[in-house]
Amino acid sequence: MKWVNHEIVTGVIVYAAAGELLPALYSMAGAVLPDKLEGNPRSGDYWSWRSRHRGWSHWPMLYLLLLGLQQRIMAPESPSFDTIGVIGSYFCIGALLHIAEDALCGKVPLFTPWQKVGFRLFTVGSIAEYLVSLVLVLLAYIFHLAFVVK
User: Fold this and answer.
1) What is the pLDDT of residue 82?
2) Widest CA span of the chain, in angstroms?
3) pTM for this predicted structure
4) Residues of the chain whose pLDDT is less than 50?
């Protein structure tokens, strides 16, 4: 997926679930992290970047481990968790949603960084990508109306 769709879809999903703007913004920042860790494909050798793309930076276990360590080290009831813990948690959730979204248009690591799974529902940058993004946004909105709004 293109970065703009990652941010929109992730932000809307988190807002629909949490019902608050700040967690959605934190997750939107995390939604671009896996690609940012790989570098810019235009800044050097494209094929070198391509060989690294969707590697360890797209491994969900990394972000689940960070999320778990954060929950373990910082007790959710502690005052420090209110700021750092919430931001870090939603940042990791954003990265995890990025990986799930990428699995709709290609393969991503699952249990190991080398074993990749996924679908090819659309090509990145195609009209189909934007339609799938729109459907995901609408489904999140319906979820929000059905379960979050009282």
Assistant:
1) 67
2) 52
3) 0.90
4) none
